[in-house]
Write a structure and sequence with these properties.
The chain is mostly helical and 551 residues long. The protein has a domain at 78-345 and 366-432. The chain is 61% helix and 3% strand. The strands form three sheets. It has a two-stranded antiparallel sheet. Strands 3-4 form a two-stranded antiparallel sheet. Helix 3 packs across helix 9 and helix 7 crosses helix 16. The longest helix is centred in the first third of the chain and has 60 residues, at 68-127. The protein is rod-shaped and about 115 Å long. The protein starts with 5 loop residues before the first helix and ends with a helix. Mean pLDDT is 81; it is low at 1-24, 352-361 and 475-551.
């Protein structure tokens, strides 16, 4: 006689239709009909009382208030509602990062505008023709500074060097109006005059300090925008088919089972959401690096690089440089004539305008250091709060959006019925979902959109790391497939800036091409999990073979 194992009988009992707690009398479907109509669906064909549920493909096949069409409609609704939850949570983070960018951008632009206005207000009375005939030179400088800050492809040091060269040519002619100077003579003059520092130490000092200040300011502002853009793009990633089924089972199957008042078990909800957002959780490590890097640069802005003082006093440094040239006019002119020869005497009359305008510079700068300090403190508080966003997102969605029951509740919806939820909660990230009991996740196929955003986080973090030590590094992406290996286990040396020079860059910004990703990281992670899957397959075959032999 063939003996059936106990597991077979248990399976038969578990799969037998059940009416829940209402005995043999079919329960009313009034609550489900009300919910279904509220979601915008027609009540035509919706049962008045429970029916047999053999037709169901997602919910448990006991007695039910849902037809196949209702199940499909609820599944589509649950997908759209969950995606809306993701976008809503993302919009909150985007709003925080965008607000921080807007605050700093407004502060920095205001600094630059005030410096430029102070120059335009004071220079006409201080320098007369030395200024009025060279207004464009000064306007061009501030325009270049703004273009650099807005991420235009400009070499800041070259722009500053060009400004001083043009200013020297114009001022030397105005300070020596009795001579006629050709373009060739002016080229020679610049070469000889620069050896004797006609503007004193101002050009060198301003180049070092302004370059550092603009590099950190630009990278800081970009960092907020990149973070916001990453959240926006990741929030738009669609749910997989498996995830849609799991979300439907979590959110609407209890209604179909006549348990509308029963909340999902918290751990059950966490496993569903962690499975659905497995790829998103892999952003966490690089996201933390970005937040930490932004905070590090914030300390530089309000500390060693002193953005408030440097940017807010550009006009004062220019005035100081012009005064140095006026005071050293005779010495510089003599040395230029020795090197380039005497220029021809001009037929135009000379002007004594420069003599009338000489005098000690008395410009003042209004400090806004306190405003900057408050900006930095507010930014650091928000960045700290956002560091764990991606790994705390499942808990946030379950507690505030899905409205899951408490963790200790033994009368919650566990995916099958009202009771406790026994499986353990999965870890975070794609690799930890291999045994997720609620969502079937293929850990060998990471989402490419999210991998691209992980790469964007790495690039921005690297740029901030370089800005933190005064280096201006831009990246040109030449990768056809940015399917990077994920976040890694530790902060890379190039990201943290440990391998970089400690001195500020005085060269043209370097451009690094990002090499194509070979995919070894992803495949490597996958291959480590494949043996366990193969082992399960072999064990299954062995069990079947043993049963045949036993029979």
């Amino acid at each position: 006689m063939r003996v059936f194992p106990w597991g077979f009988w248990l399976l038969c009992v578990a799969s037998a239709p059940a009416r829940g707690d209402s005995g043999s009398k079919a329960r009313s479907c009034a609550e489900v009909r009300q919910l279904y109509g509220a979601k915008g669906f027609s009540l035509s064909g919706v049962p008045q009382a429970e029916i047999s549920g053999e037709h169901l493909r997602i919910c448990p096949q006991g007695y039910t208030c849902c037809t196949s069409e209702m199940e499909e409609n609820f599944a589509n609704k649950s997908r759209s509602e969950f995606e809306a939850m993701m976008k809503e949570a993302g919009r909150s983070v985007q709003a925080t990062l965008t607000a921080q960018h807007r605050s700093f951008d407004s502060y920095f632009q205001d600094l630059l505008n005030k410096s430029e206005k102070a120059l335009y207000d004071a220079f006409p009375s201080m320098y007369g023709e030395l200024y009025t005939q060279n207004v464009k030179v000064f306007k061009d400088l501030y325009s270049e500074l703004r273009r650099y800050y807005r991420s235009s492809n400009i070499n800041l040091e070259e722009a500053l060097n060009e400004f001083w060269t043009r200013l020297l040519e114009r001022l030397f002619k105005l300070l020596n109006p009795q001579y006629h100077m050709t373009d060739e003579y002016l080229d020679c003059m610049v070469k000889h005059a620069e050896q004797h520092k006609p503007f004193g130490e101002v050009p060198r000092e301003l180049k070092v300090k302004a370059t550092r200040a603009f590099i950190v300011a630009r990278s800081y502002a970009q960092g907020f925008l990149v973070g916001s853009d990453v959240v926006r793009k990741v929030s738009q990633v669609s749910l997989s088919h498996e995830c849609t089924r799991a979300i439907m089972k979590l959110m609407y199957c209890p209604h179909c089972r006549g348990m509308s008042s029963v909340k999902p078990c918290n751990n059950y909800c966490l496993n569903v959401v962690k499975g659905c957002l497995a790829n998103q959780a892999d952003l966490s490590t690089e996201w933390k690096y970005l937040m930490d890097s932004l905070m590090g640069v914030a300390d530089r802005i309000d500390g060693p690089y002193n953005v408030d003082t440097v940017i807010g006093t550009i006009h004062m440094r220019i005035a100081e440089a012009i005064s140095n040239l006026q005071e050293n006019k005779d010495s510089i002119t003599s040395k230029v004539f020795q090197g380039c020869g005497n220029p021809k005497i001009s037929t135009k009359g000379s002007s004594s305008e420069d003599k009338k305008r000489r005098g000690k510079v008395t410009l003042e700068a209004k400090s806004s250091a306190q405003a900057l300090e408050m900006l930095v403190l507010d930014a650091k508080g928000n960045l700290t709060a956002l560091k764990t966003y991606w790994i705390t997102l499942p808990s946030i969605l379950c507690s505030k959006k899905v409205m899951a029951s408490s963790a200790s509740d033994d009368k919650c919806w566990n995916g099958m019925t009202k009771g406790s939820y026994l499986p353990e909660v999965m870890g975070d990230g794609l690799a930890n979902q291999i045994n997720n009991p609620e969502v079937e996740v293929d850990i060998t196929k990471p989402d490419m959109t999210i991998r691209q955003q992980i790469m964007q986080l790495k690039i921005m973090t690297n740029r901030l790391g370089n800005a933190n030590i005064g280096n201006d590094v831009d990246f040109q992406d030449t990768s056809d497939d940015m399917s990077g290996s994920g976040s890694g286990d530790s902060c890379p040396d190039d990201v943290c800036g440990k391998r970089l020079s400690k001195s500020p860059s005085t060269r043209q910004p370097e451009t690094h091409a990002i090499p194509k990703q070979s995919g070894h990281g992803v495949n490597g992670a996958s291959s480590r999990s494949l043996p366990s899957a193969s082992l399960l397959l072999l064990l299954s075959v062995a069990v079947i073979a043993a049963q045949h032999l036993w029979r």
